[in-house]
Amino acid sequence: MTQFPIGRRTVIAGALGSVVHGGASFAAEPIKIGFSIPQTGGLAAIGLQALLTMQIWAEDVNAAGGIIGRPVQLVTYDDQSNPANVPRIYTKLLDVDKIDLLVTNGTNLTVPAMPIAIQRGMVVFCMLALAVNEKFKYGRFFQTMPYGPRGKESISEGFFEVAMAMTPKPATVALVGADAEFAKNAVDGAREQAKKHGLKIVYDRTYPPPTVDFGPVIRGIAGTNPDIVYVGSYPVDTSGMIRAARELNFRPKLFGGGMVGTQAATLKGDLGEMLNDVVSYELYCPAVAARFPNVEAVLKKYQPRAKQKGIDPQGYYVPPFCYATMEILHQAVTGAGGTDQEKIAKVMHATTFKTVVGDIKFGPDGEWDHPRMLWVQFRGLKGQGMDQFTNPAAEVVVSPAAYKTGELRYPMGLAKQ
Amino acid sequence: MVDPLAVVNAVVAGVMLGGFYAAVALGIAIAFGMLDIPNLSHPAFVVAGAFSTWQLNSHLGLDPVVAGLAMAPVFFGLGWLVYRLYYVCFERRGEAALQGLAFFFGLLFITEVALVMTAGADYRSVVAPYIGVSFTVGSLVVPQRMLVPFLVSVVMIAVLHQYLLRTFTGRAIQAVAQDEVALRLMGVGPMRIKGLAFGLATATASVAGALLIIIQPVEPSIGREFIGRAFAAVVLGGMGSFWGMLFASIILGITESLVSDMWNPSWAPAIAFGFLLPTLAFRSSGLLGRKL
To answer: Best residue in B123, B215, B252, B257 to probe A by mutation, most A CBs within 10 Å?
Structure first.
């Protein structure tokens, strides 16, 4: 296993946070928070955003006096986006680094950490993971993404609700997704939704993750003439799918789905007007900024540092919920009066946490007790460029009703509008 | 019933895709096919080429293809240096086989980490007038994002092929793969020629990287996805044969495209690679290559 310099810097930054920021001086032992995070490899774009946000949180907490009078110290290693590295990292964190609290992130990188966490009875503070606890059913697992108790379905539920409100109602659907964990879960959920709404599935295929040209996939879908198309994809595939659909002038009534990447500023900026009318999910976007005013302060700290590090310069997707995860950790340790895992787990189940992304209450499975995925439709985009996505009108929230900022526009129009 | 027009569209898309695969595989065709150097890090160099194209495109507004060509001499120098290191550490001591493989595998990761440290881990893309548009001939639709890489790739292969055929250095590069001693007797230093050839192979990564970022956004680790396809194209086409490699790449592209369009996309790589096995069973030298 390799501990990269950035990991060492993280430890030092965490430990010295109070000194750097002129906050309280600590006599007590630090609370060590350990996690594996992708700093290189395919998931680094997400991992580095999470790491930066956690560093910002640690600085904020240490400047304000720490948690129960103890400073926080982040201990982290690069898992290189490789799940095979994860068990070794968590074993070292627990046995050698003697961490007090354990954090995980991402579906594929949380699953291999679970057996170790369960064996040691550790509370798992998890972020950005889909339906991990469905199989483990671990009572000390808590995940901060707002999927709710039916994880697989939540990544398609809003899309189908919106689709079924169209007039006339759609009758056929094409389902397509990458042959990988998250996308398969998303398409599984979409299949259930299609059955629930009585839609005829005319195309139901997966594609291998290293696909370069999505033209043939889109042609295959277009050949079945579906009313709506649900896509479960990863960032590069999302870009390939949307480009191919536009280049081949494929315009069903509704196109979109659980498309990872439509939340990332650089990818959105690259696709620009090609995204017009596409419907995808978001966790936070400028259209709902007024509902979560405390996110702005986090992003103000995050954005200048992200630009320097060459990671998502807007940070609407990862940082708010990552910061919220750490706020929950803070409140849980305070509530438990220490790092006793049993006490923390009890507090986690019993408390409604106040976070920058709103109130969070966990259900028995450790997921949010209700889903709150935002379904947005991209509108009015011109050419390329990420700056246009700071405009609340660029992403109209079409579901759920409580956060709705506009009605769905259909059928899918041209890219240039 | 199969729509003939759909088949034509899929075949044309496959040809375009194959052309791009050939651009990625060209450097491996030189390094592995001609010099017997298992350069596993070549796809990472391609991604480095894509990042340098992104820099020139976003800061100076250079067309991606022009940017890729402009950076080719820098990549040539880099390749020459890498070969010198490889020669001094492994080849000279006769430890090129397994240690060499480990060296290039390590270089792949070092290149990726260097890209994360210098350019960040985010997705990068370029702007060009031919991205996002397509031209239509009857019912045939060809995305220019795929057509431009195909054309550039074929021209690059043709130019390098002519260079190897018609220049003294080019013929020396072909000779060094076959008989180093004979080349020495002709008064030519094999190390110098191998360094030049490896530099050329790395220079093609700069152009291939430009073509990659035209097709899709890139992040530092994306090159790993091309290792299998690129080596398969070189072996299937025949070691040392550029046209064989292009032919094999196009076969891979057409197979992937047809299977994705007509059948099931998830079967595309299995069927494309499945073609490799019987070909090598019945023709061990590949489609157009020298004996293995």
So the answer is: B123
What are the tokens at B284? 């061990």
| Min distance A144 CA to chain B CA atoms (Å) | 23
Distance from the B157 Cα atom to the nearest Cα atom in chain A, whole angstroms: 21
B120 vs A270, A311, A415: nearest CB: A311
How do A279-282 and A374-378 pair as beta strands? antiparallel
CB contact under 8 A, A267 and B121: no
The residue behind tokens 């060094």 is B176
What gap in Å lies between CA B116 and CA A341, rounded to an integer? 36
Q: Using alpha carbons, select from A207, A235, A180 the residue that is nearest to residue B256.
A: A207
Give phi and psi for A43, each to the nearest 5: -100, 5
Q: pLDDT tens digits, residue range A173-212?
A: 999 999 887 888 899 999 999 999 999 999 999 998 878 8
Q: In terms of Cα–Cα distance, which of B20, B4, B18, B45 is closest to B223?
A: B45
User: Domain A5-122+293-356 belongs to what architecture?
Assistant: 3-Layer(aba) Sandwich (3.40)
* 3-class secondary structure, A73: strand
- b/e burial code for range A160-184 (CB count within 10 A of at least 16 → b): bbbbeeeeeebebbbbbbbbbbbbe
Packing angle, helices A295-309 and A318-336, rounded to 10: 120
**Token pair belonging to A301:** 């700290």
- Tens of pLDDT, residues B252-292: 999 989 888 888 888 888 887 787 788 778 877 777 766 44
Tell me, what's the ipTM? Answer: 0.85
Contact yes or no for A45 and B134 at CB 8 A: no
Is B60 an interface residue toward A (CB < 8 Å)?
no
What six digits make up the tokens of A34? 């350990």
Q: Which of B216, B225, B250 to mutate to test the interface with A (most CBs of A within 10 A)?
A: B216
Rounded to an integer, what distance in angstroms lies between the CA atom of residue B161 and that of residue B95?
30
What is the predicted pLDDT for the residue at B264?
83
Give the Å distances, CA to CA, from B268 to A223, B99, B222, B236.
18, 33, 19, 17
Tell me how close the Cα of A247 comes to any Cα of chain B, in angstroms. 6
Contact flag A310-B215 (C-beta cutoff 8 Å):
no
In whole angstroms, give the CA distance from residue A65 to residue A81. 34
Domain boundaries of chain A, sorted by first residue: 5-122+293-356, 151-289+373-403
pTM of the full structure: 0.87
Inter-chain contact B265–A246, Cβ cutoff 8 Å?
no
Domain A151-289+373-403: top CATH class = alpha beta
**Average pLDDT, whole number, for chain A?**
91
Q: What is the Cα–Cα distance from A388 to A394, expressed in whole angstroms? A: 7
**Rounded CA separation B143/B145 (Å):** 5
Alpha-carbon gap: A164 to the closest alpha carbon of chain B (Å): 28
Q: With an 8 Å Cβ cutoff, are B123 and A270 in contact?
A: yes
How far off is chain A from B245, nearest CA to CA, in Å? 19
B 138-197 → A contacts, CB under 8 A: 141, 143, 145-146
* Full DSSP string of B113-139: HHHHHHH-SS-B----TTTT-EEEETT
pLDDT tens string A338-363: 999 999 999 999 999 999 999 999 99
A249 vs B contacts (CB less than 8 Å): 141
